[in-house]
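We were asked to recover a plausible sequence for a given structure. The inputs and outputs are reproduced exactly as logged, with field labels preserved.

PROBLEM: sequence recovery
POSITIONS: 250
GIVEN STRUCTURE:
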């Protein structure tokens, strides 16, 4: 049965599918007050993922993180309702590459906002675990929000067996090995995105990044160190260094 047109939760009308989360189908919806929403619908057998995401995301309150509104039921399937972040996914917003060359100020603002959101998330004991362009929504001026907490969980959370989180191109080495993940693992993903912004490409795992004279090269190197013990692990410190190197106000 088509879902578009259905009214769910507290008067939210589903309009059209707009994408997929790690475990869900995402619909664009509109509240009875006319506010745009994202409605993530999970298959019934994956209800525990909806429960987990709601538990971790419902208390988050920061301007650089997507905001969870509540829960709903769609034809017997659990759903989560979130405020719809304005803008485009990162790779679409920065179509001219390298982004740090063609749209430098906006791109660096995006990176600063991502780090600001991560600093808050890490401060409440959580890690995002899936830093990638699709989870960063960017407005025209570069303002950004980090969204989608499907895979988020407590820092250094352990499981019965090694569990690999994230998307391969942006995974830290320890994520690829299935180790427990901490803040430094999220920052590795930021480093990959910063490298993409500087060079206009993604390096393959283990591949050496091209040389550059950009002053941000030192921060990039500190974020993508293979050994997590040598990598930057403080998102707010990384944000300050980004702004310092870029010559922007804190």
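RECOVERED SEQUENCE:
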């Amino acid at each position: 049965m088509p879902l578009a047109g259905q009214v769910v939760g507290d008067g939210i009308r589903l309009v059209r599918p707009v994408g997929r989360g790690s475990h869900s189908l995402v619909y664009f919806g509109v509240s009875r007050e006319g506010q745009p929403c994202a409605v993530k619908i999970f298959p019934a057998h994956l209800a525990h993922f909806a429960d987990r995401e709601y538990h971790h995301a419902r208390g988050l309150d920061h301007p650089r993180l997507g905001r969870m509104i509540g829960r709903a039921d769609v034809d017997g399937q659990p759903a989560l309702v979130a405020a719809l972040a304005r803008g485009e996914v990162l790779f679409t917003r920065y179509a001219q590459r390298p982004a740090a060359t063609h749209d430098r100020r906006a791109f660096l603002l995006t990176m600063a906002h991502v780090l600001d959101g991560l600093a808050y998330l890490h401060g409440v004991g959580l890690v995002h675990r899936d830093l990638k362009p699709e989870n960063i929504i960017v407005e025209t001026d570069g303002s950004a929000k980090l969204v989608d907490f499907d895979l988020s969980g407590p820092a250094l959370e352990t499981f019965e067996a090694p569990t690999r989180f994230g998307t391969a191109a942006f995974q830290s080495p320890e994520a690829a090995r299935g180790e427990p993940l901490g803040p430094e693992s999220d920052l590795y993903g930021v480093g990959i995105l910063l490298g993409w912004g500087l060079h206009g490409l993604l390096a393959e795992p283990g591949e050496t990044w091209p040389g550059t004279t950009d002053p941000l090269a030192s921060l990039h190197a500190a974020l993508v160190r293979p050994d997590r013990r040598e990598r930057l692990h403080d998102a707010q410190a990384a944000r300050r260094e980004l702004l310092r190197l870029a010559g922007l106000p804190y």
